[in-house]
Design goal:
Shape: elongated
Largest sheet: 4 strands, mixed
Structural class: alpha+beta
Keywords: Membrane, Transmembrane, Transmembrane helix
Radius of gyration: 35 Å
Strand order of the largest sheet: 8-11-10-9
Strand content: 5-15%
Distance between the termini: 77 Å
Number of helices: 8
């Protein structure tokens, strides 16, 4: 049991709810060495198991502090809301959300949400400016500047011995964590898109199998799919806009080439995986829109056939007028007049019957 002086700095990014928590711990050398000798992660060992006094009550530090910070930022904000019932006013809903939270949301499907998950930096940083910690086999020298910056990959700890490089190392930790969290949140957003699309499939399948002919349903489905496409386009463009702007290691640190190359490889593999996720979501959205497009094409074909039938009927009538005049002319026997009149009247009837037979044959063939 011990008391550790602790301070917190919370940073927030917009769009996908990225929060960065900078925790500073004032730990004496003896306690720090005990933690290092046990190969424990500093954040998990101290914050994860730490306690805090709230009045007369002792509470877990993480369960008390993190909600306290989140509520301080999002007191009046709705963090999650399904906008499907509000498609006609979706722009107003997004504007209100931005006004209340000062954050421009990126929608997952039709869900308006902001993920307030706080992420301490992956790598803890030990400021050993008095050179009190001995460098052993656990530590790897990652800078060309001798005796300045070391890393223990297993415990995710970096050790800095030169105070002049402190700001640069903090930037390295900050932006490195930013990269990892940006990609992690992007993966999660893609997974959420898969979940949304999967939920839509059963409803569309049911309406196709029951041959739903309600034009309102198909119109709403088309509008919904178009909004889904636009929401994903916004997410995709946000990713593409920021993915190339992810910074590397500060040049002042003179990070060793093998370390930089390994970091780039890991980063490239993660980005390639994200692009595969995005391509799969694109393909799934296209397939989700196919039934609506097919219904529109079938409806257009049926309406075109109706128009063609009407045009042909008008053509029969136009052709019949001079024929009727010729039949009524004197000198033609009544028998011929009756036969000619029946023939003129039977032409559209025969056409309608033939069209009906053709449609029935097509239907039975495709059944």
């Amino acid at each position: 049991d011990c008391k550790i002086e602790t301070s917190f700095t919370l940073n927030i990014y917009e769009a996908i709810g990225y929060l960065y928590l900078d925790i500073t711990l004032n730990i004496d050398k003896e306690l720090l060495l005990k933690i290092l000798n046990r190969n424990l992660h500093l954040t998990n060992a101290i914050i994860g198991k730490g306690k805090i006094k709230d009045g007369d009550e002792i509470k877990d530090a993480s369960s008390f502090l993190i909600p306290l910070m989140i509520n301080g930022i999002y007191t009046n904000a709705t963090l999650s809301e399904n906008l499907e019932p509000k498609l006609s006013t979706i722009s107003d809903e997004l504007n209100d959300f931005t006004k209340n939270t000062h954050v421009k949301p990126i929608l997952g499907g039709l869900e308006l949400s902001l993920d307030p998950m706080i992420n301490p930096c992956t790598y803890s940083l030990i400021e050993d400016f008095e050179d009190e910690i001995e460098i052993n086999s656990y530590w790897k020298d990652i800078s060309y500047i001798k005796n300045t910056l070391f890393e223990d990959v297993n415990s995710e700890i970096r050790l800095l011995k030169d105070k002049n490089l402190l700001d640069s190392v903090k930037d390295m930790n900050y932006f490195g964590n930013n990269k990892a969290d940006f990609l992690f949140k992007s993966y999660k957003m893609c997974e959420h898109w898969f979940f949304i699309i999967n939920n839509e499939i059963s409803n569309i399948r049911e309406n196709i199998s029951t041959e739903n002919s309600n034009p309102y349903y198909w119109k709403q489905l088309k509008n919904k799919n178009e909004i889904l496409d636009l929401n994903f386009l916004e997410f995709n463009t946000y990713i593409m806009k920021h993915i190339d702007l992810l910074p590397g290691h500060p040049t002042r640190l003179r990070i060793k080439e093998d370390y930089r190359n390994n970091s780039k490889k890991v980063q490239k593999d993660r980005i390639d995986m994200l692009f595969k996720y995005i391509d799969q979501v694109k393909s799934a959205l296209m397939n989700l829109s196919t039934p609506g497009h097919s219904h529109d094409e079938m409806f257009l074909q049926e309406e075109t056939e109706k128009v063609n039938d009407r045009i042909l009927m008008l053509s029969f009538i136009a052709m019949s007028i001079p024929s009727i005049g010729a039949i009524l002319a004197p000198g033609i026997s009544n028998f011929i007049k009756i036969m000619a009149g029946c023939g003129i009247l039977l032409l559209p009837v025969i056409y309608i019957l033939i069209r009906g037979i053709i449609k029935k044959i097509r239907f039975n063939k495709n059944k």
